[in-house]
Amino acid sequence: MSILVKDLVYIYHQGTPLETIALDGIELEIQTSRWLSIVGHTGSGKSTFAQHLNALIFPQKGEVEVEGMKVDPESKDLRKIRQKVGLVFQYPEQQLFAETVYEEVAFAPRNWGIKEDEIHERVEEALRAVGLNPSYYKRNPFHLSGGEKRRVAIASVISARPSYLVLDEPTAGLDASGRKDLLGLLADLRERGMGIILITHDLELALSCSEQIIIIEKGHKLCCGTPDEILVRLLRDHVHGLLLPETALLASKLVSEGWDVPLTSDELLLARFITEKVKS
Amino acid sequence: MKFLNHLTFGQYVPTESLIHAMDPRAKILGTVSLLTGVFLVEHPSAFLIWFFLLMIITFLSKLSYRLILGSARPVLILVIFTALIHIFFTGGTPLFAIGFLKISREGITMGVYMGIRLLLLVLFASLLTLTTSPIELADGLEALFAPLKPLGFPAHELAMMMTIALRFIPTLLDETDRIMKAQLARGADLDRGGLIKRLRSFIPVLIPLFVIVFQRADDLAIAMESRCYKGGKGRTRMDPLEWSISDSVAFTTCLALVLFLSWIDRSIW
Ligand SMILES: Nc1ncnc2c1ncn2[C@@H]1O[C@H](COP(=O)(O)OP(=O)(O)O)[C@@H](O)[C@H]1O
Ligand SMILES: [Mg+2]
């Protein structure tokens, strides 16, 4: 089971002076229970891409297929596609509207026509997953802290039990510990078989957690591969607007000085190699 | 499903053209005189001349004809509605009747006239907003109304409010689009069911939108205050408006055209 993207093109305001080519021939296959990160500079087309996966906008050219269902305005399966692919927008806390945390998280399963007793189970599960205990159920989401709001918003998407979870810049505006918690949560969901599609402009973040990375620039797929492959590639050709992790720069510097260390962005791994070298 | 992903009605399109470069005051005065002219038209063939004039100005402003004609689309319903009202409710000798509605020759003429007039008004007005940035427009209006300031007319405040409103309309449309999409992604069903059901289903869109609007307004007020905004008194401009010879020429041409056309309209035809 997978999401297939073939030669996807999307242009905003086509045929007017404000025409912007957002996506220009993207090809991709996304597997369930894998962690894919899509990395690119601001304005490279990441958010536009994300909205195609969820059938919120439709390919102007090319194809997007979610588990065999075509993303097309005429399709009968649009709601099924949206149920399969959960989409967490950038700043998802801005979409909160309900009076209680419980109602907010129950919104999606209710829309999908789930029965009331199962809804309860799903809400509990989703809130537990994001680390909010039952004392939160009756609270007003607007009175929570920023980080808690973000967690409620994410719970309100995973309560639909999607097969894929697309997150658009989910770490924007979170502090370091909030970021770490979030990545932990995503790793758990991934363990339980959900496909994670993380969209970010933060290369270091993507390198630290993904199984596969795709770099897009100006709507083109620049390269794709495992974190190690991407790192080697980016050390070779600099991509505008993407900062390599300091650790990787240090590793590459050491290699060019003749040290035998791996090119990695993992500081613990690098530190171990360096200590070994220094000792021997 | 249709989102708010089209050009907003009459949204400024920045290009370099003779019309874009004009002083906003000249453009506003010129447009007002053209609009008056449209209202003075009496003979049907004069409408053709007005459409021709519209095309010439569009050409000079380097905008596409499709864009300018498309800008009337949102008000087309209004145009048709106005025409129908006049067709049905103008007195005169009835030609035929549908039920209690009597349709007269005068009614049809009046309806068609009003429809075309309204269409022309919208087209000329959107020509102004398509070629003039909201800031320029507000500056121009403020300058034109400045003589009324001693009488207590809040020219600056109104211009500032207009600038802010115009500046935020596209942003709000974007926000609405984004929130609608976020709720659709969570399975909201925004376009099914009867009126009440639809209104109810928009609650998840309206509440977040209000929260964002108030937040934005608050931020803007703080930003303005922290830059010592105290209203229009003693305020200077980075780009003072400059009325040049070409603006005089353009405005005089508009005025002369209007006078000339309505004179022809009355005396020759
Ligand atoms: N609603 C929209 N209308 C017009 N242009 C848009 C819209 N959304 C995005 N764009 C443009 O499309 C390009 C890609 O944007 P986006 O997909 O948001 O990129 P990213 O998420 O990588 O920052 C940008 O140039 C942006 O200005
Ligand atoms: Mg984005």
Q: Can you put this structure into words, describing what you see?
A:
The complex is a heterodimer of chains A (280) and B (269). By secondary structure, chain A is an alpha/beta fold. Chain A has two domains: 33-58 and 77-237, P-loop containing nucleotide triphosphate hydrolases (Rossmann fold, 3-Layer(aba) Sandwich), CATH 3.40.50; 245-280, no CATH class. Chain A is 39% helix and 22% strand. In chain A, strand 9 (212-217) and strand 10 form a beta hairpin. The model of chain A has no long low-confidence stretch (mean pLDDT 91). In chain B, helix 5 (76-89) packs antiparallel against helix 6 (105-131), helix 7 (134-145) packs antiparallel against helix 8 (155-185) and helix 8 (155-185) packs antiparallel against helix 10. Chain B has two domains: 1-132 and 243-269, no CATH class; 134-235, no CATH class. Chain B is mainly α and 269 residues long. The interface between A and B is medium-sized, with 32 and 27 residues. The structure holds adenosine-5'-diphosphate and magnesium ion (MG). Residues 46-47, 90, 168 of chain A line the site of magnesium ion (MG).
